[in-house]
């Protein structure tokens, strides 16, 4: 039976019959839902005289979700992106299904994304309230009071990024203060510090508040966050690319056998090797290494570099 069950008109126009109305499923043929994976696994791998004689469907569903979760981090293309205008508070709330970021950038007037780099030179620590004698102040519950925001965050947002990202106003402040120049020039290094030699702004992730904090030169800019999820955030996310289906099957098989009592160790090791090989093949297939793109890059080999 063929896998395409709709006409070309239904595919291009969608259920409402209107072109590009956000209800279409363009490119959906390359993915398989998790329910189809579970059904196919129960038919192919489970039964009498098969690799797995008997297993509960709930167990297969659990291992299938774990497979999607593990593969989403480094194998399956689960990258998402959002775009916002940086508010006056210089922050971005982490998305609901955020796991880790892959790229953070701001968009210039030409639509080019300019990378924003992460810094470890500051943070947003939990501030403790103190009285005039520098003793901690407690609330009515006997817990230490926390003023908001922390002094570290306030100073950084008010004065950054003059030693961080090379903002013009910040460097002028240094140029007008010879004491600062003499202080930091004495015993310092010559030349650029590669970690700080860029002018696109910087950010750090405030794990306590669940936010991304930006330097002051990012105020009002259009910021784009590209991040990865675990593939389990919603029903639409729980899909697998067809290049990785075999690796998912091998993962589930190994997971089921490894927790099963009285399973021969050679069988567990066999399917572990098959799982590793299938996952490696999936990574190669999904890497999108195109020969024409490689040839385009390798043309630089013939250039002469003049000194």
**CA distance, first residue to last residue:** 65 Å
The portion of residues assigned to helices is: 25-40%
Shape: extended
Strand order of the largest sheet: 2-9-4-5
Largest sheet: 4 strands, antiparallel
How much strand?
Answer: 5-15%
Number of helices: 9
Q: Please give the number of β-strands.
A: 10
Structural class: alpha+beta
Description:
The protein has 307 residues and is an alpha+beta fold. It has nine helices and ten strands. It has helices at 8-13, 34-44, 57-74, 151-159, 168-175, 178-185, 245-258, 265-286, 291-298, and strands at residues 31-33, 79-85, 91-93, 100-107, 113-115, 117-118, 202-206, 211-214, 222-228, 239-241. It has a four-stranded antiparallel sheet, with no helix packed on it. Strands 3-8-7-6 form a four-stranded mixed sheet, with no helix packed on it.
Quick overview:
The chain has about 300 residues and is an alpha+beta fold. The chain folds into two domains: about 10-75 and about 230-290, no CATH class; about 80-230, no CATH class. The protein has nine helices and ten strands.
């Amino acid at each position: 039976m063929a896998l395409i069950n709709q006409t070309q008109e239904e595919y291009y126009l969608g259920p409402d019959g209107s072109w590009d109305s956000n209800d279409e499923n363009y490119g959906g043929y390359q993915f398989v839902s998790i329910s189809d994976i579970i059904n196919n696994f129960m038919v192919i791998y489970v039964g009498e005289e098969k690799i797995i004689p008997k297993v509960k469907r709930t167990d297969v569903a659990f291992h299938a979700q774990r497979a999607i979760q593990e593969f989403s981090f480094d194998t399956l293309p689960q990258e998402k992106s959002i775009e916002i205008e940086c508010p006056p508070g210089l922050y971005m709330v982490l998305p609901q299904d955020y796991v880790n970021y892959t790229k953070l950038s701001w968009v210039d007037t030409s639509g080019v994304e300019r990378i924003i780099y992460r810094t470890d030179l500051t943070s947003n620590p939990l501030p403790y309230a103190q009285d005039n004698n520098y003793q901690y102040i407690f609330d009515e519950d006997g817990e230490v009071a926390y003023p908001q925001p922390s002094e570290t965050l306030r100073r950084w947002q008010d004065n950054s990024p003059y030693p961080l990202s090379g903002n013009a106003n910040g460097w002028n402040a240094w140029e007008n203060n010879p004491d600062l120049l003499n202080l930091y020039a004495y015993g310092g290094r010559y030349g650029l510090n590669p970690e700080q030699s860029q002018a696109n702004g910087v950010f750090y992730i405030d794990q306590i508040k669940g936010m991304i904090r930006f330097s002051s030169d990012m105020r009002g800019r259009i910021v784009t966050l590209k991040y990865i999820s675990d593939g389990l955030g919603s029903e639409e996310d729980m899909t697998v690319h067809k290049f990785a289906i075999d690796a998912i099957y091998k993962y589930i098989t190994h997971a089921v056998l490894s927790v099963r009592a009285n399973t021969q160790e050679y069988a567990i090791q066999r399917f572990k090797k098959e799982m590793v090989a299938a996952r490696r093949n999936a990574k190669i297939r999904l890497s999108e290494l195109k020969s024409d793109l490689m040839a385009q890059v390798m043309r630089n080999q013939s250039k002469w570099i003049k000194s």
